[in-house]
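In line with agreed milestones, the collection of sequences with tokenised folds has grown. A representative record is reproduced below.
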Amino acid sequence: MRAKIERIIISALLKSDNANFLTLLTRHGLASSDFSEPMFRNIFDEFLKICSGRDCPTVINITSKLKPEDRTFAWQIHTENDFIPFSELESAFLNLKDLNKKEKLQNALSTAFNLNNSAQDTKAIKILTDALKEYSTNEKSILNAPDFAKKLLVEKSKERKPCVKTGFYKLDNNLSESGGFNPTSLNILAARPGVGKTSFAINITTNILKAGGNVLFFSLEQNIWDLGDKIVKSFSDKCATVDDFISNVSKISNTGLYISTEARLTTQVIENSIKSLSAKNKLDLVVIDYLGLLTPTVRSQNRAIEIGEMTRHLKIVALENSVPILLLSQLNRRSDQDDSIPRLSDLRDSGAIEQDGDSVIFITRDIKSNDKDCVISIAKNRHGRCCDIKYDFLGKTQTFSESQLKKS
């Protein structure tokens, strides 16, 4: 049974269109040590090496690095099955992980049984405890109605993390009933090139910093000087002289701003950074500029699959860490054909961006005429209303302000 399960998984890995395999690998995870057959382990190891580089994990790329006997074995498996249904492949993933857990438990029982003298009792208990934790399944996450009701009441009694205000009154009022970004939301900010995605994200960042909040800003497009210059200009209206600049830098140094300008970033590195900072300070917002420059953890020939895996991972990160993420994204080329407000279908590379985003916000501005008038459109919103809001854009300082701002 085990050999058949492993063969199904490796067969899917070697298919020319291995999108299902990539999806399940990200969802459930596997390691070469999960395979009992050495040839399967060798094929899987080579697959991971290729994924960590720039090449696509095609059967030709994988087999070219294998030993002759492994290469022959891989091509034999590759030609066995034409198509493996998604449900069958997912069952194989889950069954293999379950078999490995059972084996670990059996090995732990055997080891603990052999530790039969009193001096080894504590060690035996620890081995069994660790094994039982490893063997635990996801059944605890499935609640019946009474348990669900109890959990709901307990969660209701807890102090809920407030929404994070952007500092823009009208935008906040429409994003959610409480005002601002929901604390577990993935928010997409998209626009055509040059319209002001980064500037608007920086405006939101500086508004939160001025309110005493903490922001983690990932910039994959700009160096520390270019990004810092925009942040300083956004932080204060006064930035005409060197003294003004120094004064603003001094103010920023006392805020909760964290910046990364690492050009090659994966969603896993972002998750690790968020967890590390969250352990020390509460994060109010994470900004990622921008999605198209992120490095996929697992490479695919299908860009939509790569984008989908990254946006899904970021949504999970927002949920698990209770921190809103503002993810910047480009629009596809078709949106350049007219100056109308973009549509959800204009999001570049994947429909998964729209699917995973709790809110999708578009910026529209006529950059040819250098018009200060622009529109911020909430095109999708799980926690509030969709609407169009008129803004003024000041190019000199790269700042936005709501037209005819209504004060609370």
